[in-house]
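Here is an idea for our session: we take a single protein and study its fold together. To get us started, please write out a protein record for me. Start from the sequence, derive the backbone structure tokens from it, and show both lines together. Go ahead whenever you are ready, and we will take it from there:
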Amino acid sequence: MYLLLLFLGPTIMIFCGLQLFSSVPITFLLFYSWLLLVPFLDLYFLQGKLWRDTLSYVGLVLHRKNLIVGSMSGALFLLVIVWTGSLFHPILFQQDDLTQLLERWHFSGNQAVWLIGILMFINPLLEEFYWRGFMHQKLAKSRRPATVILLTAFFYSLYHLLSVIPLFAWPYHILMVFPVFFAGIVWGYLRHRYRTIFGSMISHILADVGIMMVYLFFLV
């Protein structure tokens, strides 16, 4: 039951923020509080790990090749996202509906500036810390690597349905979840292969920068 809560907690936070409060800032507060606080509460109070042990446990250790591979994969993700957005944004998005939705979610005006910054640099760090760091290692104790990678990628993708479905035009909203799942598998593999999350963090940052570039260049 506890493990299921860890899997679904981030999705519940996104649901509450977007569906109940209809606010991106509140969603960020709920979602990021879960991603940051729950692992520390688990590691310190349930597992009794010290600070140094925690860093190693979640994969916060440097590995040069991992940084290179993470940077290369992230650059590729960024290029594909921007290229796809530049070509297909007229059919992927309904501009008027998207603008109204973002205004309803309080993702507009001057407030959007700092929200974009959070999405590009804070969001990928905390998501990787939770899924490829904390959850990956927690599952790795009793499950095969492929199972761990698939489970973390699946539940990482799950809450993206709540944000992706309203943003994209039908029927592309469902299809957009598959690239998220694929990215989760790539980042999970990097975590398993090199036993660190720094590479997946860099890759994730570059992917999110690509998404924000599509928003700023083609949708604003």
Q: What stands out?
A: The longest helix spans residues 111-140. The chain has a mean pLDDT of 93.
